[in-house]
Structure formats: structure tokens, C-alpha cells
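Lecture notes, unit on protein representations.

Consider one protein chain, 117 amino acids long.
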Amino acid sequence: MRFMMSYKPASDRPPSPETLAALGKLVEDAKSGGEFVASEGLYPLSLGARVRLSEGALTVVDGPYAETKEVVAGYAIFQLKSRDDAIERAKSFLKICGDGEVEIRQMMETTDSASAS
């Protein structure tokens, strides 16, 4: 099963060099175990935009935004055996990064959509 994990930090401070090194080790360990698929951090909100469709009207709002607590700072995709394994991976990540939240979502596989129709 593939799981996508999105990270929402409690603050907008960039990670320290020590944190980045520890995250690099976490990724290397996941790679060597065959569990790592992909991971990327995201640029600051000031470089982003939100596009919204509401009642037929499209609007575009350039970042940064007033409300930042729900902002995704990065994501990772892992190939894991279970949801419990994904939860343990998220706990390991947060122990390195500190306060924040990781949302875990199982990804649909091609066979999932074929069986849903």
C-alpha cells in the first residue's frame, strides 16, 4: 500500500541544518528498506496561489495568506504494509521536526479504481 503523508508545521520557521540532516537519514533508512517512494518540501506561501471555484466564479489569491495553520510544508510517499506502519513513520518524522501535524492518506492504486466501477 502506498501512503501520502503531508506535513503541516506549527511554525513557519525553516528547518535547522541538524533537522535536515536527521531527515536525510530517515529518508536513507526508508530507501534502504524499500519503503521510500518520493518526498519534497514546498516553497514559502509568499510564492504560492490559491485558485477557487465557487458558484461558477473563479478567483485567484496570491500568497501569503492570513490563515497559515493548515498550510502543507511538504509531503512524502511511502510503500508500506499497513496504516499502522504509516502512523509509526509519521511519529518518527515528527520526533525529528517537532510540533506540527502529519496527515496520512492511503493512495488509490490502479486496481482500486478498476474494482470501484
